[in-house]
Design brief:
With 243 residues, this protein is an all-alpha fold. The protein has two domains: 1-144, Hypothetical protein af1432; 152-243, no CATH class. The chain contains twelve helices and no strands. It starts with a helix and ends with a helix.
């Protein structure tokens, strides 16, 4: 199934400029997130139908990114359009989902998993039937984002600005941080670190530990003294979680 979906995504992405590094990066990111989603689903030993949905939602979670880059030349949702909302509009309102997967009874689960993969929080009233798939895709996306941050220091760049009070407060209260609170690159580093607070599954925690993700992120920081207390907080939180 995965190979078939990759071929279908490749066919879709040919509508865009694959020589553009930004398009290419999202194409390969989509494939890797699909694989992470499958691994998480396997670790949970969920039934075959939900395993299939995890694979489909994983590869399509960033479906809106290609059109976003084409129209706005940015991946900043704040400066353009929410890419999760754009994805479900294209896939479900414009029926492009049928180019990838034909199962009407599963579309609602896929819709929520793709729509909410990039949101600060999943709505409290979301039915449990949809919550599991949402969390699988969110974890899978985060794991690959961490790898991208390690591989590409430009994505984890810093500046001389002070970290703003609201960002600092939310971070030490172990909350994920709203992009609307971000005022500078220093804030963005803290936002990215706070993503650790939202990981849900043991597979994700084990992956972080085994691949020394936190250590590698800290290695990428130039002003280590400035961010030391934030990384210490993440180590503390993480060690508490894995126990």
């Amino acid at each position: 199934m995965e190979d078939e979906l990759i071929k279908k995504l490749e066919l879709y992405v040919k509508n865009y400029d694959m020589n553009d590094e930004n398009i290419k990066r999202k194409y390969y990111h989509s494939i890797r997130v699909m694989k992470f989603a499958k691994n998480i689903a396997e670790s949970l030993k969920i039934e075959a139908h939900n395993m299939e949905l995890a694979i489909v939602a994983g590869i399509l979670h960033d479906y809106g990114r290609f059109e976003q880059w084409k129209n706005y030349k940015t991946y900043s949702d704040v400066d353009s359009i929410d890419h999760g909302d754009l994805a479900v509009d294209l896939l479900f309102n414009q029926n492009e989902i049928t180019n990838f997967y034909n199962n009407n009874s599963a579309y609602k689960q896929l819709y929520y998993a793709i729509k909410f993969h990039n949101k600060l929080e999943i709505p409290n009233d979301l039915d449990d039937r949809y919550l599991l798939l949402c969390n699988i895709v969110r974890d899978a996306d985060k794991l690959d984002i961490f790898n991208l941050l390690i591989e590409n220091k430009n994505l984890f760049s810093e500046d001389s600005c002070e970290i703003t009070d609201n960002v600092k407060k939310d971070f030490f209260e172990e909350k994920c941080i709203n992009y609307k609170e971000i005022k500078n690159k220093s804030d963005k580093i803290i936002l990215l670190l706070a993503v650790f607070y939202d990981l849900k599954f043991n597979y994700s925690l084990d992956y972080i530990k085994e691949n020394r993700i936190i250590d590698k992120l800290y290695d990428n920081v130039e002003n280590k003294e400035k961010y030391k207390i934030y990384f210490e907080q993440i180590y503390k939180y993480f060690n508490k979680k894995i126990q």
